[in-house]
Amino acid sequence: MKVDLTGKVVIVTGGSKGIGKGIATVFAEQGAHVVIAARGMEAATDVANQLQAQGLSASAATVDVENYESVENYESVESMATEVANSFGSIDILCANAGIFPSMKLEDMTTDHWDQVLNVNARGTMFAVKACVPHLKKANAGRVIITSSITGPVTGYAGWTHYAASKAAQLGFMRTAALELAPYHITVNAVLPGNIATEGLDGLGDTYLQKMAKAIPFGSLGRVEDIAYAALFLSSKEAGFITGQSIIIDGGQTLPEDAEAF
């Protein structure tokens, strides 16, 4: 799919690995200047350097999405957004992708475990969007794309009660944010990945990966590019009348009534 993003400035939170890196790469390939925003400056810079080596436009920023105004050792979300807008002239697209997914059974979970996941995944999404809104208002048809998940909004998975809650919360936030920002022609949508092959799965072993792939009618894990191209469409001029919506990208994973039927 060809979407011309020439001259557009895109922030991808959690852009140094996995789905975020895939989104950053695809958007840069379409002509955007992509800001790789992550907690680890070294990793973010590595991705920016890789994109630059391909002749693409990218830069790195260090940020902690849990903190809006100030935080030791990391740039706050607000200051990061201001710096990006001042340096590159605008913020046209925000891909709110940063998230964590530690596994823990409900009976072992503490308040701290719960708060950490909700703070990063749900509150972090709100902070990132809030920080970018003043700049998105100045853009010509700003775009927000949130990386949610099938886990929580559609399915459940043992060990991820906190993660599932955070991902469902993102969609509630998305719908009302879409209403508030519609008068400024800013769209707010979400992508819901299923089982996607990322480096986060490294070390889980072939047996586990085969089990994950078996849950998908297509018979294989999705690629980060599959998520990135859906996000790219939602960022396009052609998607300008779509807001408050979510797209499931899962190779049919959520379709079967009977897991043995395919």
Describe this structure in words.
- This protein is 41% helix and 14% strand.
- The chain is an alpha/beta fold and 262 residues long.
- The chain has one domain: Rossmann fold, CATH 3.40.50.
- It has a seven-stranded parallel β-sheet with strand order 3-2-1-4-5-6-7, sandwiched between helices.
- Helix 1 links the parallel strand 1 and strand 2.
- It is globular, with a radius of gyration of 18 Å.
- The two termini are 30 Å apart.
The level-1 CATH class: Alpha Beta
Q: Give the total of beta strands.
A: 7
As a whole number of angstroms, the C-alpha radius of gyration is 18 Å
Structural class: alpha/beta
Q: Largest beta sheet, briefly?
A: 7 strands, parallel
Q: Supply the number of helical segments.
A: 7
Which regions have little confidence, pLDDT < 50, spanning 5+ residues? none
The portion of residues assigned to helices is 40-55%
Average pLDDT metric: 93
User: β content, as a range?
Assistant: 5-15%
Number of domains: 1
Give the N-to-C terminal Cα separation.
30 Å
Question: Helix and strand layout, with pairings?
Answer:
Blueprint (H helix, E strand, L loop, with lengths): L8 E5 L4 H12 L3 E6 L2 H13 L3 E6 L14 H12 L4 E4 L14 H28 L4 E5 L13 H21 L5 E7 L12 H9 L9 H12 L10 E4 L13
Parallel strand pairs: 1-2, 1-4, 2-3, 4-5, 5-6, 6-7
